[in-house]
Design brief:
Layout: E1 6-7, E2 11-14, H1 21-28, H2 42-59, E3 64-68, E4 74-81, E5 90-95, H3 105-120, E6 125-130, H4 135-143, E7 147-148, E8 160-165
Antiparallel strand pairs: 1-2, 2-3, 3-4, 4-5, 6-8, 7-8
């Protein structure tokens, strides 16, 4: 199965695969993965990455590998994560290395994915579960237009739920 390819000014977003394994396992086994269940050992990191890859076949959508167009380097992932225990998909994002922070990549990638979900797939909204201690993700969610939804219970302990709405539904 193939997936859509999204292009931004600096990034290519595509279905993840074997070429993204090194960057993603490195992330998941590092302290940077604190808010993604990490750091993990190799076996659990591999299973988590395999979940990201396999979701495309099971759901028909998933997180995109975020790749620098000019170099081909995988720098993270962004998109809807929807494991079996979640009632609805979660818009998620991550940068695999601190060297990529502060350059607007996460915002650029996430905005492209949200546009795809709302305009190409017709989604009305999507949620993000964010740990209140994860200040960078909270700030990005708000910059993307998400608002805290206290009525939606997060399946992830200690996380708040933020809701992204299709632009035509935002008042």
């Amino acid at each position: 199965m193939t997936g859509p390819v999204l292009q931004t000014e600096r990034l290519t977003l595509r279905r993840p695969g074997a070429s993204d394994e090194k960057a993603m396992l490195g992330f998941l086994m590092s302290p940077r993965a604190e808010f993604y269940g990490g750091p993990m050992d190799l076996a659990n990191a591999w299973r988590k990455f395999a979940t990201y890859v396999g979701q495309w076949d099971l759901r028909g959508y998933g997180m995109f590998a975020v790749v620098l167009t000019d170099t081909g380097e995988t720098i993270g992932m962004a998109g809807p994560f929807h494991p079996g225990e979640f009632d609805e998909p979660e818009m998620s994002w991550l940068l695999s290395d601190a060297a990529h922070e502060g350059k607007g990549y996460a915002r650029e990638a996430s905005a492209a994915v949200l546009h795809h979900l709302f305009h190409d797939l017709g989604w009305q909204g999507v949620i993000s579960y964010i740990d209140p201690a994860n200040a960078p993700s909270l700030a990005l969610a708000e910059r993307l237009g998400a608002r805290r939804d206290p009525s939606a219970v997060s399946p992830l302990p200690g996380c708040d739920t933020y809701r992204h709405m299709a632009p035509e539904l935002v008042q």
